[in-house]
Amino acid sequence: MPKTSESCVGMTDRVDDLPGFDQRRNEAAPSAAPDRMWSGFVFRLARMGRTLPGYGATLGDSDPGPLLFLNKSPWRGDARIGSTILGGVFPLAGQTVRRNTDIWSEVGVRASWHSALHGFAWLGNLAAVGDEAARRKGIGLIMDWIDHNHDWTPLAWHAPVLGTRIASWLAYYDFFFGTADEMVQRRVRKSLARQAAHLSRVAAHESDGADRIRALVGAVHAAICLRKQRRRLDNALRTLAGELDRQVLPDGGHVERNPSVLVEVLRQTADVKKCLTQAQLEVPAGLQTAVDRMAPMVRFLRHGDGGLALFNGGVEGDPSDVDRILHLAESTGRAFSSAPYAGFERLEAGRSLVLVDAGDPPRAGWDGHAHAGALSFEFSTGKERLIVNCGATVHDDDAWRDAQRSTPAHSTLSLALTNSSALTDHGFGDRRAHVTAERKDAEGCGLLEMQHDGFVGPLGFRHFRRIFLNQDGADLRGEDRLIPADPNQPVAPRRFEIRFHLHPAVQASLLANHEAALLRLPSGAGWRFRSGGAAIRLEDSIYMGRRGDARRSQQLVLTGETREGERIVKWAIRREAPR
Question: Domains in the chain, start-ordered, CATH in brackets?
Answer without folding.
Answer: 68-205 (no CATH), 343-575 (2.70.98.70)
